[in-house]
Amino acid sequence: MPSDARSARVHLAVDNCFASKRWTRPYQWMELVRDLGLRCVEASADTEADPLYCGEDYMARWAEEVSRSGDATGVRVVNLYSGHGTYTTLGLGHTDERVRRRMLELWIKPMVRTAASLRAGLGFYCHAFDDEVLQDPGTYAAKMDELNGELAEVAAFAAAEGVTVGVEQMYSPHQYPWTIEGARDLILRVSQAGGHPLYITIDTGHQTGQRRFRRPDASTIVERASSGPAASASAPWLGSRDAQARFERCAADGRGVSSGDLAFLAEDMDRHPFLFSSPRDSDPYAWIDDLGRFSPSVHLQQVTGASSSHLPFTEANNRSGAIQPDKVLASLRASCESPVPPGFPPPPEDLYLTLEIFAGTAETPSEILAKLRESARFWRRYVPEDGLPLAELAGVPGRP
What is the CATH number of the domain that holds 40? Predict the structure, then answer.
């Protein structure tokens, strides 16, 4: 396994989520991907490939059709990925063990087996924590242990099937991992727990929420409370419900925040460190610098504001966009050239830069395909050929 940018191979891919409910047969979306000038595709469960919705027999036939269509088009599925279906549930973080086991046995394991049949990897996000879990540090710690155990089981199952598996990083406290430190902890703890690697997926738009959850200092708390009852509309993020309620009482009765109130809030925030982010967590390049070598697939979306809107890389968006290909590649190179810390899994040999461009419900097919073509052309300037070593793409004088 490589540990530097000379041997890490880079490929440009696209997630077929753009085809959901429009071009649903493998030959249809594979032909479209080929026409974009791409040969690597990430197949979303939302594009009629979800084992819970579709069933075992259908998934087997679907995989066969993928293989036939791949042979005909020259396009290959390099990863399977979860979509909105599993994202909308508590899944592996559910309060009921029966639901957790159902997600594991009837969604994740079938997807691993399907990925194995296609010689593809698997990425997913199918867990979240109920708000009650976030309120109590002891309960949170127990749920974290439970989740890490389940993910270790996933990693072991995937390893036995020869499948590389990863969890997507998110951007709010109830969706772990959402901080760089949390993602590092996830990779390390799960990979060590069973001796099998678990990776992550970095998304270049999943750093837009963390700024809302930074821990405020005392002066900010005092200043925000000074506006009286109206302060609740601009209250700082204080983490727990108890802390938020204490702040609102201080603001509502007009007495302001006392030293005792500040001491209570500081102690409560100390007890809930998992509810707060740091400034680096809002920086997509910091994520790639630190963890890019553990992200077999990096989801690419353009970001022009404070939301993760999965925008295309059009000329208009790129003028104000935060995501620049040369900076992404430079950060990946810096990550791959950093020593792998003890206990972490070996970096994968192949890195897939994966366009994840959403299609609006009311967008026409021609509009969708036009923005995909423009995005693919834009990124092909920086990854002109699949499989080139990262060192040839990042930091080379004269490259766009």
Answer: 3.20.20.150
